[in-house]
Design brief:
Elements (H helix, E strand, L loop, with lengths): L14 H6 L11 H4 L15 E7 L8 E10 L2 E11 L5 H16 L6 H7 L8 E2 L5 E2 L2 H15 L10 H13 L5 E2 L6 E6 L2 E4 L9
Antiparallel strand pairs: 1-2, 2-3, 4-5, 6-7, 7-8
């Protein structure tokens, strides 16, 4: 019998299983439902032109800045990230940066919830140690700062709400930057590598946790 439909899947059925299910060797028609491929989220088709934003990341780890571009697509009248590009004159990290951009873009294009990427990237620690950003915020790694860059973009386009930072925590961050603290420990509350010694007390510069109250 001639097959007139495109084959998109197949299943191997033993002789005994075929007989028990009532399928004979002469049966040629296959149920369409068994050949259907179920997609959790449909891939978003890329239009010719996308609107996006470019962010510059400067770290003490390299003399060259890192430029992160995130392009958005409109879905039901709302902007959501579609693709990301990371570029720098520093070729030392070229391989993992290319891999990271492809994976992140693939997640964006599936159209699901991509906010989990922020915490996943911010949880990456550099074994050589992190650094303080301008303003006193501690970054455990360059990957973590890319995660924060994505978080800032998601806040900008309204996907997630910005975290509230108290004046007390902001002043502690500025003080840590002014005195030049070079190292930090992991916070038991938020798991960020941002606990430093200030005024004789261990304080987390990420969430404000402190044993001194």
């Amino acid at each position: 019998m001639k097959i007139e439909k495109k084959i998109v899947g197949f299943e191997v059925v033993s002789k005994n299983a075929a007989e028990e299910s009532g399928i004979s060797g002469s049966t040629t028609e296959t149920s369409e439902s068994s050949a259907d491929i179920i997609m959790m989220q449909p891939l978003l088709k890329r239009p010719v032109e996308l609107e996006g934003s470019t962010y510059r990341i400067r770290t003490p780890l390299s003399e060259h800045a890192l430029y992160v571009t995130i392009n958005d697509i409109l879905v039901n009248g709302k902007r959501r990230p579609y693709e990301i590009f990371i570029n720098s004159k520093n070729m030392e990290n070229f391989a993992w940066i290319v891999a990271l951009t492809r994976i992140l873009s693939a997640v964006f294009r599936h159209g699901g919830d991509a906010t989990f990427l922020v915490e996943e990237l911010r949880s990456v620690f550099d074994p050589r140690g992190g650094y303080f950003k301008p303003g006193g915020k501690y970054m455990p790694s360059l990957v973590a700062e890319i995660g924060e860059c994505i978080e800032n973009h998601l806040i900008k386009i309204g996907i997630i709400q910005p975290p509230e930072i108290s004046r007390e925590l902001q002043s502690k961050r500025e003080k840590a930057q002014s005195i030049g603290i070079a190292g930090a420990e992991q916070c038991p509350k938020c798991s960020q590598l941002s606990v430093v010694r200030l005024d004789g007390c261990d304080t987390c510069l990420e969430c404000g946790h402190s044993k001194c109250g």
